[in-house]
Amino acid sequence: MFPKLSDDSLLDAYRSAIRLGLDWEFVRMLRSEIRRRCLKLPEGREF
Questions:
Q1: What DSSP designation does 46 have?
Q2: In a domain, 1, yes or no
Q3: Which domain of life is it from (predicted)?
C-alpha cells in the first residue's frame, strides 16, 4: 500500500494522524499497513 514509505516514516505518520485527530479511515489504513509490515503499533490511543 505504501511501498516507498520507510517504516519510521509510516510510524511517524500514524502517530501524527492520531495526535491531529485525522479521519478515522486514514488512521485505519495506516494501521493496516503497520500490521502488514509486522511492525509494533506505537503506544497511545488506538481506535
A1: -
A2: no
A3: Bacteria
